[in-house]
């Protein structure tokens, strides 16, 4: 997880530099009623597609594996990972975050090629060449709100951090909310409760930094003290442990990666093998006008950091910023 530590440290450093950059937030936000992509696919139980990745004694299955509680305590964080790798897909989970003091606690939902077994067994993996699409929820001491951070890497483009950070319009510790990632050859989209909050188009601008390796899905909780929260000033306080996050409504739909043949094969729910990749359909290839408007409005109100608006960090902005 060293790569995670590196980048989070950097992000918090940048965040402290840019803390003057605030959103014009509205407390009277009603999310638009957009297409419910999360209603299109079956929800998976733990043993229908996942396995423990670390901190096994801190993972608890509930409701026959429909929900998974992952705990961070003094002994360990914990997490689980998809059994398969995917080459494009739609990934969703509902998360309820730990209530109370949460400084330094990080809850993450991400796809990454870093631990991709198919590549590793082929010894093709270069730790600095990996692809990743991140949703990270960052606990905070002083603000009541958790912060949602998104990031995207291709081919190990870690030096060019492409972070964007957002406030949420709800208290994420009260109930479960849906967090989703669309990833295909056209674009990558981050969504919260079916509202798109960020779109990264697979354009010439971003070219080789666009994720194009098979990736596995990870759900984790871990201690971000060393680098998060003002450079370690407000570490995880284990007086308030255990910190428990609940994951449910797990959905993974798209092209699984065939490790033997090293090709993607696409499965459409209920129909077995199919050449039609359900995430390449029109509604996954581009955002509708309504979705675009919903996204623009959300970003205007709730975005608190974008690398594209950080000239102190990038004297020359990454090419995809100049749209
Ligand atoms: C639990 O889930 C499995 C599928 O993962 C299913 O086969 C089994 O019948 C379920 N058990 C109960 C009690 O619902
Ligand atoms: C699972 O985690 C959620 C979120 O922290 C919590 O509300 C719930 O009580 C937990 N359930 C158990 C059995 O630990
Ligand atoms: C999505 O990308 C594919 C090629 O990967 C292209 O054929 C298709 O036209 C694109 N769709 C949209 C809506 O841009
Ligand atoms: C990926 O990065 C390596 C250097 O780390 C470079 O040699 C290679 O050309 C890159 N691949 C692509 C597709 O840009």
UniProtKB/TrEMBL annotation:
InterPro entries: Beta-glucanase-like, Beta-glucanase/XTH, ConA-like_dom_sf, XET_C, XTH
Cell wall biogenesis/degradation as UniProt keyword: yes
Main location, first listed in the record: secreted
GO MF annotations, alphabetized: hydrolase activity, hydrolyzing O-glycosyl compounds; xyloglucan:xyloglucosyl transferase activity
Annotated catalytic residues: 132, 136
PROSITE patterns: GH16_2 (PS51762)
Protein localization: Secreted, Cell wall; Secreted, Extracellular space, Apoplast
Span of domain GH16: 24-247
Signal peptide start and end residues: 1-24
PTM statement from Swiss-Prot or TrEMBL: Contains at least one intrachain disulfide bond essential for its enzymatic activity.
Cellular component per GO, a single term: apoplast
GO biological process, one term: cell wall biogenesis
EC number: 2.4.1.207
Swiss-Prot/TrEMBL keywords: Apoplast, Cell wall, Cell wall biogenesis/degradation, Disulfide bond, Glycosidase, Hydrolase, Secreted, Signal, Transferase
Family: Belongs to the glycosyl hydrolase 16 family.
Function recorded in the entry: Catalyzes xyloglucan endohydrolysis (XEH) and/or endotransglycosylation (XET). Cleaves and religates xyloglucan polymers, an essential constituent of the primary cell wall, and thereby participates in cell wall construction of growing tissues.
Identification of the protein by name: Xyloglucan endotransglucosylase/hydrolase
Organism of derivation: Coptis chinensis
